[in-house]
Each structure stands twice: as structure tokens, then as C-alpha cells.
Amino acid sequence: MRWGGQGEAGRTAAAALLALASAGLSACVDKADQPRPVAQGDPARGLAVIEAVGCAACHTIPGVAWPEGRSGGDLAGFGARPFIAGRLPNQPGVLTRWLIDAPSLDPGTAMPPMPLNQAQARDVAAYLYTLDDD
Ligand code: HEC
Q1: Start and end of every Cytochrome c domain (predicted)?
Q2: By CB atoms within 10 Å of each CB, which of 55, 84, 88, 121 scores lowest?
């Protein structure tokens, strides 16, 4: 009798887990085009890094009042763009590498290597992914 009861509870729990798992999967599919959170990245720290290293000398960046550089393009809406510089997949790992050393991904790019360590690049990427509307 007790076993039967526990089995019932176990089946219910398993069904609930399955339901959760499939809900999670469809949520992933739905979010494929949405901004990607960067594991361990802190957007607030990222903004501070952006200001410290001077990205805005070349880019107009929402949240940075001055300067509003033009040579690198406007980063408004960057979080919702599918590509970095129109040709690399806009994914956290690619973006952090781009931020540290863009020419290693594309020798022809005019974006210079930036003096960021991994953690700083993750923070900057996390901030850029908050810029999801134009
Ligand atoms: C000396 C100017 C310069 C500086 C400084 C600079 N960038 Fe760039 N950046 C560029 C240029 C030019 C491009 C376009 C590259 C291309 O299309 O090959 C670019 C491209 C990008 C892109 C891709 C934009 C898109 O629309 O896909 C991102 C994101 C980016 N930069 C972020 C940053 C961040 C963050 C910093 C500071 C850590 C920074 N950049 C510093 C010049 C610069």
C-alpha cells in the first residue's frame, strides 16, 4: 500500500519534470532570436569598462553620452542582431573574442584589438546584449 502510494507520487513527479523539460525546450526555441545573456557577465560593470577603454570614440553606444563615434557604427540594437559586423554569428563566445581581438576573427576589420581581459569582455558583451532595440 505504501509502495503503491510512493509509486504514484514518483510518476506524478516524473510527469511534472517531463512537462518542465519540454516547456524549457520550447522556451529555448522561442528565444532563438532574443538577446543572449552572457554567463557571469555583469552589464553594469560592462558599461564601466566601455567608458574606461573608450569604445565610444568609434561607436555611438546607448548609455554613453559622449563621445558618439561614427567610424565603428551605432551599437543600438546590437543585442538583437544575428551577426557581428554582418558576417560572424552573434554568440557570446564569438563576441567576447571579437571584443578582445577582432582582427583574429577577421584580419581585414578596422576594429582594433582592445585591452580587455576575458572577464571584462564578458561584462562588455553582457552590456551589449542589453541593447536589444534600435
Ligand atoms: C578605433 C575604432 C574602434 C574602437 C576603439 C572600437 N571599435 Fe568596435 N568596431 C570598429 C569598427 C570599424 C567596426 C566595424 C568592423 C567591421 O565591419 O569589420 C566595429 C565593430 C564592432 C562591433 C560589431 C558591430 C555590428 O554592428 O555588428 C561591436 C559589437 C563592437 N565593434 C564593439 C566595440 C566595443 C564594445 C568596443 C570597446 C571595447 C569597441 N568596439 C571599440 C571600430 C572600433
Answers
A1: 41-132
A2: 88
- In sequence order, which residues have a C-beta less than 8 Å from that of residue 99 and are 6 or more positions away? 114, 116, 121, 124, 125
How far apart are the C-alpha atoms of 58 and 106, rounded to whole Å? 18
Give the chain's domain count.
2
Which atom of ligand 1 is nearest the CA belonging to 109? 18
Regarding whether 109 and 71 lie in a shared domain, the answer is yes
- Give the closest residue to 41 by CA, choosing from 126, 131, 129: 126
Domain that holds residue 19: 1-33
Is the beta carbon of 126 within 6 A of some atom in ligand 1? no
Kindly state whether residue 133 falls inside one of the protein's structural domains.
no
Residue 60 phi/psi, 5-degree rounding, is -80, 125
| Domain assignment of residue 56, yes or no | yes
* Of residues 55, 68, 70, 67, the one with CA closest to residue 128: 55
Same domain, 3 and 56: no
Quick: pLDDT tens for 37-74: 677 899 999 999 999 999 999 999 999 999 999 999 99
